[in-house]
Amino acid sequence: MAHFDLTGEENAGTYFAALPGTSGTDFVQHNTTPMKARFFASRDEVAGCHPSRWIYELINNRFTVCDLFDRARAQSAEFDSPYTWDHPHKLVINGNQSYSTSSAQIVSSICLDCHFHFVFKMAWEEDHTSGLCHHSQAAWPLQDNMFPWHHLAWAGSASPGNMASDYSKYNPLLARENFVCTAAPCTLQITLEISQPRMPSWWVKLLLDHEAIRHELDVAREQDPGRYEGATDEWAYQTPLNLNTYLKNQLESTAETVRSISKRNKRFAVLFGPRCFSIFRELEFQEKIEDNNGVDEGSFTPRPAAPSAGPLGTTEINTYRAYLEDVRAEVQCLIHKAGQAAEKPTFCTPMLHGVLQCAEVKDVESNALVGTDRYKLLGVLPSQGREIVVNAYKRQWDLLPSSRKELIDALLNVANDAQDDLLIEYAVTQSSVYESQPRQQAVADDGGTVLQSLAYFELTPPNNYPAEAIIRAFRKKLVDDPADASTARGVLMMIASESQDDHYQANLLMEADQKMSLETAKHVIGLNDSSNIISDAGPATRKKLQQCQKPKARKLYLDALDSIAEHTASPSLKQAAQELAHESESGIGMGSADSGAPVDFSLPVGLDNIGNTCYLNSLLQYLFTVKPVRDVVFDYDDLKLGLSEDAIDKRRIGGNKMQMDRGEAVVADAFAQELATLFNTLQKSEKTATRPSQRLANAVLLSTHTLLNSEKAGDRQGSPLPPPLPSRPLPEPAAAFGDGSGDVNMVDFEHRGTAPLDTASLSSTKTLVEHEASPEPSHERVENVAEPDGQMITSTTETSNADDAVMVDGVAPASKPSGDTQAEKPIPTLDARTTDVDMVDAEAPETIDQKVLSALERQKRSSGTDQQDVEEVMGSIINRLQAAIRPSSVDDKTGIQLERLMETFFVTTVNYTKKFHEQKYQHEVSFDRSITAFPAENGPCSLYDALGRNFDQQILEESKLSRYTTIRTLPPILHVLIQRTQSTGSKNGNPVIIPETLYVDRFMDMDHDSPAFQRRVEDWITAKRIADIKTDLAKLEDNPSYLRSLEHYKAPEPLTSAKLSTQDDAPEEVETFDFDGPVEDDFLLISPSKPVVEQEEVSVPKVTGVYETYCQVKQMMEDELTRCEETITAHNEELKEVAYRLHAVICHRGQLMSGHYWVWIRDFQDNVWRWYNDADVKENKDTEEVLRTLSTSGEPYFLCYVRDGDKDKYVNVPKREQPLQPEPGPVPEPVPELVPELVPEGTSPPESASPEPEKLVDGGVREMLTPPPEPAA
């Protein structure tokens, strides 16, 4: 509900007299989307409009800016539609295709008259929902930081090539138009898709050919009068009704309940008959032909449509189900036009107004003003309120800087049309302020600045060049001399400053910014209009960097890539820019790992990135150095769980004792085998880097649910055959087929008896490694099969609706009964004239094992920016390995199944809570893969402080609780997650100082009555005091000069004790409106008169010693801080019994949802750190340097410590196996040298009959051997 903030006439005057964007209101957040960024990057002046005008122009085919309808008129001859489209559209809701979520809304509609389809796809950034325009911000006068209504501008059309992939019979797209709301904080964008009718003209002609139908009816009556005794002439007008019924039943049917249409059905034969068979073939019905003495007694069987799989159970557009809904909607339009519709259609225009939060203007089409230029220019409709008009005026002011005078004139005229006194006053004020602006005077080029600037860009004076020509010369300069970019920008700014044209200036200044325009950035790195900017920008930048050595030129290329990433809002390009910047600074990574250089066998093998798997590569390299993991992988045949149902059913994973299903067991088994293959390759590879299999990556990064559901029933165009039919229960008696269709005989499928099936789901209530919530129960089925010993084994199968499966049998075969079940009797066969069409039956369904293994090979992952959390992926790897092996023991008290991995990685923690009035703590024990550390909100902190934020006491005042956490048991390998995800959805990049040796004594569990625990409580109190002092010190200014100024302050005259006069004596407030000259600072001043006061002198004492007192207080705080820190340090120095050494650090650079990972791993045996960055592996022997690097950035993310006394037992870096070298053959006898005098003059001595032998040394470097000397005589 709109509110009107009448803040007084003083403020009203301020806003009246300020041109848009100059009122000095609060900061306005500028949010963007890729579409919005591209719109503003184009810098073309494109007008927008209020949503109600946008809807009006769309409905009436007369967009002011968008050329959609002009293009349509030029192509009208190509449209296959029985109706003209150039008329006011009556849009009604279509099918089950519309829905709304927290960040999107889809409205699918069809024109009742022309049958063209209009789909409105509205989306916004969920994180910026609060920034969306909303009518609750409406107020008068409207401030610059208020955005009550959207203002929609055309952001361009999709190219034919872009739409080609989505064009099909199911969705014959004609146009895809993009629109954005131009309000600064709003992220609303609209994609309008228009497509042709699904029913071509010849369909409609056949369905509405009443004379032909009446003729068929007459013939039928004459040939079979008894059968058609009840038929009436109304049948000639009921063809759309019957087709609507067929489609309704088809959409509601499944593979088990679908019913065929007999060609001899009396109504079907008359209304449709052979002349309409092609319609049903186009609808992908399966046709059966049965020739009986020249009469076709076959049938048409509808193809079952896959269930709706869109959001909230809606139908996905461009699917077979959507196609059927679209056809049915067009049929219903025919029914509506014939006056046969029982219900009125649901018009979507009110829905559109509601979604876009605007009100429909009644009878606007009859208003003669609607098409005038002033309303088009402002983008509003006649009779809309003053707040709407001013909102549109402010948005257009930003969009059309060269038409601002025309905008003010239009505002004046619209205000006069409305006869709105407040709006007229506002418009007059705006006009006066605009006219009173001081005009720029021409600047004389006395020093020849412009001439020199033009010469720098190789342009000939005088400067009569348009802005585009100057910008082209500027871009050429950047390409020719990238190291001189800063000078080029300065020259461009100089040319801009000499101009008196605001628009000209703005264009040049925008180009001079370091954040380049998209076109300039593309020129700099060498991309052209045919380039795929997302895929080509990164490699093009890398190539430029490799070809230049000048730091300034390299910076220009990096800035260009960063600008492209900003304009396109591409996380992958942002990641590439960050990586190339890092590589450019460090001088690494500029070449390929396989650049032809000799392989250094002293370095471990790198891992190629196979599509955004840097985080997985980092974890695999780390786990390869953990001995228990390698033992499990290499000894898998002796440790594996196996895939028997009994073993899977009894296995429980982790501290929560989670049950797994068969699919998870199959994935785990495949993963363990793939990991063994990779580990073997890492030991034996003769290459610099190897490539992990996609099968391994899928097993870790995709959930079992995703793998099992990867074969979603395809229902796109391509196969007219219906999907395979699974075994199904006995059919129920045929139900009435639609309303009013009693004589439309449908034919049921012939069906034989099947063995009973107990439908059940094998999915556990909580799966092991699911990364997404499981939706509805899977379509898995359990079938009991008898074993020879009489026991029942459950075999799992899954039904399939894949449309490429071929059915082979005419009827469903009867399955053999199991040992203790009895086969049911087959159903008697029906008469041939009424039986269903012979359908081929389904092939044998895939088992869960086959399904999962096939999906592991075939399933594709996104190679975009779907970075997964390292801790999550680490958990997935450990869980997969746990699920693949047998437990080694079971804890008697808890029933937890233990194995090598759990004993190696899992830490036992205890969470203690206590209410304020209670004496004893409540506690809860948990088993975790890692412990969590939280960086400081501001600045660096130690790892101990970061862990303290998790383990130390917390006081919850609202809940009246205190709580803390301890460690009860520690594993040999301790993982520490540095939690950098903040509640705001951003990344905490503050450094954490990482110690080489971590002592965890201070976090261990202890008796609450022990002296050690009492001292821990004291340390908590001291730590809290330290935090408070640091917070207070941070608020103080260093050496604030204003404190000394207070000591020298002296009032210019005695202060007074003011006493207001009585109300009767106070004069009335006076308002002044001065328009004699320009209004200073764009404000209209409203000055109230001051009340009369009686003055009484008061003496003011001089303030002394202010600064000295400040320094004393600050010193006291610093001294207390030092004492507290020394106390805690002394206590912690005594707690150094439980020591862990740093073994590995996984790092991340980038944003929260994207970026790049790498890992540092220490080789204790060689006393060296190695840096693994996908295929690159490098060494650093300086531990202090590595720790200093890790402790001064926000990149470390996952720390891996190993118990100091056991590090040689649990971790090491396996050495690469040197390639086998062929044994050298016997050394040939040396050939005696020829005596010089025996060699003819002018000739050389002959070469030896054998080449000199060679040997391999130092990893492949060949060294020539000198033949051994002859033995002494």
What can you tell me about this protein's structure?
The protein is an alpha+beta fold and 1273 residues long. Among the domains are: 29-199 and 349-373, no CATH class; 449-586, no CATH class. The protein is 35% helix and 14% strand. The protein contains 40 helices and 42 strands. Strands 1, 2, 3, 4, 5, 6, 7 and 8 form an eight-stranded antiparallel beta sheet that branches. Strands 25, 29, 31, 36, 37, 38, 39 and 40 form an eight-stranded mixed beta sheet that branches. It has a four-stranded antiparallel beta sheet with strand order 10-13-9-18, with no helix packed on it. Strand 27 and strand 28 (961-969) form a beta hairpin. The radius of gyration is 40 Å and the shape is globular. The protein starts with 8 loop residues before the first helix and ends in a 9-residue tail after the last strand. Residues 1-12, 439-447, 589-596, 711-842, 862-867, 1055-1090 and 1231-1273 have low confidence and may be disordered. It is an enzyme of class 3 (hydrolase). Residues 605-1204 form the USP domain. Keywords: Hydrolase, Protease, Thiol protease, Ubl conjugation pathway. Its EC number is 3.4.19.12. Residues 720-732, 1221-1233 have a biased composition (Pro residues).
